[in-house]
Design brief:
The complex is a heterodimer of chains A (454) and B (251).
Chain A (H helix, E strand, L loop, with lengths): L2 E5 L2 E5 L2 H8 L4 H6 L6 H12 L18 H9 L2 H4 L7 H10 L2 H6 L6 H9 L3 H8 L6 E2 L3 E2 L6 E4 L8 H13 L6 E4 L6 H17 L6 E3 L3 H9 L7 E4 L4 H6 L4 H14 L9 E5 L3 H4 L8 H13 L5 E4 L12 H17 L4 E3 L11 H13 L4 E4 L4 E2 L4 E2 L3 H11 L5 H10 L21
Parallel strand pairs in A: 5-6, 5-12, 6-7, 8-9, 9-10, 10-11
Antiparallel strand pairs in A: 1-2, 3-4, 13-14
Helix pairs in contact in A: 1-3, 4-16, 6-8, 8-16, 8-17, 9-17, 11-12, 12-14, 16-17, 17-18, 18-19
Chain B lengths: L2 H8 L30 H18 L5 H8 L3 E5 L5 H6 L1 H4 L15 E6 L5 H14 L7 E8 L5 H9 L3 E7 L10 E7 L10 E7 L6 H18 L19
Parallel strand pairs in B: 1-3, 2-3, 2-4
Antiparallel strand pairs in B: 4-5, 5-6
Classes of the chains: A alpha/beta (454), B alpha/beta (251).
GO molecular function (chain B): cobalamin binding; ethanolamine ammonia-lyase activity
Family (chain B): Belongs to the EutC family.
Catalytic activity (chain B): ethanolamine = acetaldehyde + NH4(+)
């Protein structure tokens, strides 16, 4: 069924739901590359007006990718919870925006199982940055493994001490540096230089030893392909969290070499290890706008709607952590600091609305039109929006992945400026270890020799 | 040398006690200290300088005659469908397709060898000839033509190799420049290459450069992956990199 809208005497026609969503999306290079973006500002606002008038219940009857063709669509439809949807069932997309802005946090949080990702994407397309911040800040999502992530007033940091050759001393120095700056409560997570299972197991052993020697109430992760992690678990490696990059269509996930059944199997394998002390959220996912187009698996759907669909995949597996790697993919998807800023806040808001412990890798690559000022702006907005966690990379410079993320200092600054704290178990540990008292000396309890640095 | 340095050197094992001592274990920006919660001025400006260099590196181009001379073999030069750098950055689809009118030699069953600029030409110019020289004698199949490709993405290798009729392709391509590294080379290996292959169907060796993976190790790993791919009839997630550390030849 086509949608129509007249703006200033011009009548715009949008053939179907996915076209309406794409044309209503604020401008970004990836949608232009895919050929789905609005061709003028007038067409975009016409689509936004038509979208605002669309009943939310319409999403129950029209999918952007056919049910028969895509296991992610099947997951979204089959898992939709009508009872949770009931409070907003009568609303249009525009009415839903007003409802979200006026509702109290408990009501917004309770909605999650009743929301389809396309509904969250739709309402975000007619929100300003301030709306994205305010609505996200209402959502409460708490997860647990060896500590508690996402409590109100907290901001957690993933300690990301990557090294170009996975050198154990180099990694250990990065870990210690991050701990000294209060990072690591979300996870201590390494992107390995290779997917070689022996090398991955060496890093897993090393990170587990560091966590054990310092008795840190946190979890570790090596972000290898899920099938490599499964092999490592079979061989007895100390795996806390299973990591995987995921996307919002079946074909995107195929391009990543995964499926819903592989993720389910991996989760069951990790649960069987029983390594969590406070909870059993054992999965860690990364996403990012543009991955479906990059894999030519987007079905003509705009990149932000597909990104929201990836969150339906994530929530199926009760993850401890999910983050969009918003500026990593490059300027062909998000051209500059302005596009990265909006996308980061959209991803965070949609992830939270769908009930995820949503973090953001606030980042950019050197071929994007962005710099540290853009990252400071996004980080500050996200911290106000109650982002669950951000990355901590030594000096903001990832020497393995060749991109810039947030530094340990940035995380500390965001916490200080907004009165945010680390996860409570981790905060108690920081105090116990005497961290933060001295800007030059390493506290005796964190002796580098304990983790092999001599 | 002052007395403190002297004492440190005479100690058999010098465990770090100061935060800044961590710097000797990694090139990452550790031990920066802090100004309040922020990075001190000197470290801040170091970062800004590195970013300025990396921004310029994105716009570097291959010196094709010099590269061909360093390779020392007959080469074929091709362009992708992206006419210039800005289009290349905004239109990766064009970087994956050969320009119109390209003809390539036919070499069925060979390993096609593609040397491509990618996102930064500096590392390709510096390291690809040395890696290629070491890889050639280790190939499990006959070497195909060496192709230099400009404004190229990894998947351009599929288009090239399909036209050559190659059994496999090794694409040596410039990686995204980072702040500490503007000369990193990546190797992408694809079995039965043809247009439409996905990244999950390739194996990758990254960070080939001084301070990252050395030339000998990179060539040995590429040869190992090619042999394994030949046995399996596939690359990508189906081919697990289980090359034991001991299989690397002595330096």
């Amino acid at each position: 069924m086509p949608f129509t809208q007249t703006i200033g005497g011009t009548r715009f026609v949008f053939d179907d739901l996915k076209t309406l969503l794409a044309r209503a999306t604020p401008l970004r290079s990836g949608d232009a590359l895919a050929g789905v973006a609005a061709e003028s500002a007038a067409e975009r606002i016409a689509a936004q007006r038509a979208l605002a008038d669309l009943p939310l219940a319409h999403f129950l009857n029209e999918t952007v990718i056919p049910y028969e063709a895509d296991e992610v669509t099947r997951l979204i439809i089959d898992r939709h919870d009508a009872a949770s949807f009931a409070p907003v069932r009568h609303l249009t997309v525009g009415g839903f925006r007003d409802w979200l802005l006026a509702a109290d946090p408990a009501a917004v949080t309770a909605l999650a199982p009743g929301l389809m990702p396309e509904m969250a994407a739709a309402v975000s397309k007619i929100m300003r940055v301030a709306d994205l911040i305010q609505v996200a800040a209402k959502c409460r999502v708490v997860t647990r493994f060896r500590n508690t992530i996402g409590l109100p007033g907290t901001l957690s940091i993933r300690l990301q001490p990557n090294h170009p050759t996975d050198d154990p001393h180099g990694i250990a120095a990065g870990v210690l540096d991050g701990l000294l700056l209060g990072a690591g409560d979300a996870v201590i997570g390494i992107n390995p230089a290779t997917d070689n299972v022996e090398a991955v197991m060496r890093v897993l052993d090393m990170l587990d030893r560091v966590r054990d020697r310092y008795e840190i109430p946190t979890q570790t992760c090596v972000l290898s392909h899920v099938t490599t992690t499964m092999l490592a678990m079979e061989r007895g490696a100390p795996v806390d969290l299973v990591f995987q990059s995921i996307g919002g269509t079946e074909a995107t996930n195929t391009s990543f070499g995964v499926s819903l059944s592989v993720l389910k199997e991996a989760r069951e394998q990790a649960l069987a290890l029983g390594r969590g002390t406070l909870g059993d959220n054992v999965m860690y996912f990364e996403t990012g706008q543009g991955s479906a187009l990059s894999a030519e698996a987007h079905h003509g759907v705009d990149q932000q709607t597909i990104e929201a669909r990836a969150y339906a995949v994530a929530r199926e597996f009760a993850p401890l952590l999910v983050n969009t790697v918003v500026g990593f993919i490059g300027p062909e998807y998000l051209f500059d600091g302005k596009q990265i800023l909006r996308a980061g806040l959209e991803d965070h808001c949609c992830g939270k609305l769908l009930g995820l412990p949503m973090g953001v890798d606030v980042c950019y690559t050197n071929h994007a039109e962005a710099d540290q000022d853009d990252m400071d702006t996004l980080l500050t907005c996200l911290a106000v929006a109650g982002v669950t966690y951000v990355m901590g990379v030594p000096g903001a410079d990832d020497v393995m992945l060749a991109y810039q993320s947030t530094s340990f200092h940035d995380g500390l600054t965001a916490r200080a400026m907004l009165g945010k704290r680390a996860a409570p178990e981790f905060e108690a540990w920081l105090a116990r270890m005497g961290i933060g008292l001295d800007a030059e000396h390493i506290p005796a309890r964190l002796s580098p020799a304990l983790i092999g640095l001599a | 040398m002052n007395a403190r340095d002297d004492a440190a050197l005479n100690r058999p094992s010098h465990a770090p006690a100061l935060w800044r001592d961590l710097r000797r274990f990694t090139d990452a920006r550790v031990g920066l200290g802090r100004a309040g919660t922020a990075v001190p001025t000197a470290a801040h400006l170091d970062f800004q300088e590195a970013h300025a260099r990396a921004r310029d590196a994105v716009w570097s181009a291959l010196d094709v005659p010099a590269l061909a001379a360093a390779i020392g073999l007959p080469v074929t030069l091709v362009h992708s469908s992206a006419p210039d750098r800005r289009t290349y950055l905004l239109r990766p689809d064009l970087g994956r397709r050969l320009a119109d009118g390209v003809t390539l030699p036919h070499a069925p069953g060979s390993v096609a060898l593609v040397v491509a600029d990618g996102l930064c030409a500096i590392g390709v110019q510096r390291h690809a000839p040395a890696v290629l020289q070491r890889l050639l004698p280790m190939l499990p199949l006959p070497a195909g033509p060496v192709v230099i490709a400009e404004q190229a993405r990894v998947a351009l290798g599929d288009d090239i190799a399909e036209r050559i009729g190659a059994a496999a392709v090794v694409v040596m391509i410039g990686e995204r420049p980072g702040l500490s590294t503007t000369d990193s080379l990546g190797l992408y290996i694809t079995w039965a290459p043809r247009r439409g292959r996905t990244d999950a169907e390739r194996n990758c060796i990254s960070n080939v450069r001084p301070g990252g993976m050395g030339y000998d190790d990179a060539a040995a790993k590429a040869a190992w992956l090619l042999r394994a791919a030949q046995g399996l009839g596939a690359t990508g997630v189906a081919l697990k990199d289980e090359m034991p550390a001991t299989a690397l030849p002595a330096p």
